[in-house]
Amino acid sequence: MTRIHFVAAETPAAQAARRALAKRYGQTTAESADVIVALGGDGLMLQTLHQYMDQNTPIFGMNRGSVGFLLNEYRPSGLSRRLESAVRVTLHPLRMTVTMAKGKTRSALAINEVSLLRQQRQAAKLRILVDGIERLPELICDGALVSTPAGSTAYNLSAHGPIIPLGADLLALTPISAFRPHRWRGALLPRTARVTFEVLERDKRPVSATADHHEVRDVARVEVQEDRGTGLILLFDPDQNLEERVLKEQFSP
Q1: Both 82 and 188 in a single domain?
Q2: What is the rounded CA–CA span in Å between residue 160 and residue 92?
Q3: Taking Cα atoms as reference points, which of 27, 199, 187 lies closest to residue 98?
Q4: Do residues 150 and 70 make contact, with C-beta atoms less than 8 angstroms apart?
Q5: Which value, in Å, is the radius of gyration of the alpha carbons in the chain?
Q6: Domain that holds residue 68
Q7: Looking at residue 161, what DSSP letter applies?
Q8: Which of 8, 99, 109, 206 could form a disulfide with 18 if both were Cys (CB 3.0 to 4.6 A apart)?
């Protein structure tokens, strides 16, 4: 039998599902599990992916939250069969490398996006380079983000960025409430691109950088590049795989 480790959000519905499923299918440790089953919403799924990133254990999510874009439908019966027939999707996160105002550096991984946001009432001013070449000398904005295909339907979509099919080998570079140049709507970049943000007038216009939920404040420079050395395995029911969901999202009203 498949050895399963169940994790759940703190909501009553998710915790009740975890107890019922653990009683029905057994609960093993995360270290010895063949698969991790996450019960909650997309936030819980992202948290689980980050927590077990170094284990390389496939993760099958079931929606006990709200949106559940990265999760399957919750059904307590037939779980073993669903896991055996599940479609595997490998995601590669973005690596954010931050140089702070005082020279310290920080690094973090993002499954959805890396975003830069103004910290105060003043708009941010950003210089943007791609593979070391200046592409935008000054972007006045609330912020900007770099999104993976899997994350393109999240914050990126809310910021009016494009939805990217999983097999497109692209990243989305999207401004957040751009003021100047006001006609710039962002860019699609090859997944191999190295995007660099330099914060201009940072004493007057401080900026924070966030990789999913990991935030660094008062940044001076941020480099973003896909980390091909890290692969995260998600499992989906065959009729609800992630590639199909991303495609469907482009036709949703």
Answers
A1: no
A2: 23
A3: 199
A4: yes
A5: 19
A6: 4-91+231-249
A7: P
A8: 8
Q: How far apart are the first and last CA of the chain?
A: 42
* Residues 98, 57 share a domain: no
The residues annotated as belonging to the active site are 42
Rounded to whole angstroms, how far apart are CA atoms 176 and 241?
Answer: 29
Q: What is the CATH number of the domain that holds 85?
A: 3.40.50.10330
pLDDT tens across the length of the chain (253 residues): 689 999 999 999 999 999 999 999 999 999 999 999 999 999 999 999 999 998 889 999 999 988 778 899 999 999 999 999 999 989 999 999 999 988 899 999 999 999 999 999 999 999 999 999 999 999 999 999 999 998 999 999 999 999 998 878 999 999 999 999 988 999 999 999 999 999 999 999 999 999 998 999 999 999 999 999 999 999 999 987 778 878 788 787 7
Task: Report the predicted TM-score, pTM, of the whole model to 2 decimal places.
Answer: 0.89
